[in-house]
Amino acid sequence: MYPQPYLDYLVQFHVERDYFECHEILEEYWKSVPQEQRQVVWVGLIQIAVGLYHQRRGNMNGAKKMLTSAHSILEHHPEDIRRLGLDHAALMLLLEQRLEELNKGLSYHSMSLPILAADLREAYERACALRDVPVTRESDLNDHYLLNKHTLRDRSEVFAERARQLQLRERQRSEPGS
What we know:
This protein is mainly alpha-helical. It contains ten helices and no strands. It is globular and about 60 Å long. 28% of the residues are buried. This is DUF309 domain-containing protein.
């Protein structure tokens, strides 16, 4: 019933606390859907993860911007949030509390999304069991790679694809009749 990328996002969000990977997973899923069928609720969930990534790294302005945007998007989509098995009112409250903490300059602490639907809870717990991980754990604030993943990850595939696309465009421009 729930898309696998969503379950993967939830595992990354609650267990691995790899918010960068949360962003990657849901953005790829969101982009895989035809543009006219894309749901903005996915963007809101991506922005929550990105906001927490920024906060954990000490980028309070980036965190505020992302979490404010997520709140703004998600507050107008309560039915979509409920269809994803989350408690809309509790999620809005969590975001408001986190924004208040950011405004007070409080540091990062782990946050869990309010799973409401029993079928989502069961699917999520199965996804955790398949990976042999607990259903939640705190962020490891000493994991340098996790905290700085955007600068440390292997980007060779991305660079190779960009080079391939550039060569393709150059070839198309140089062909007769282009």
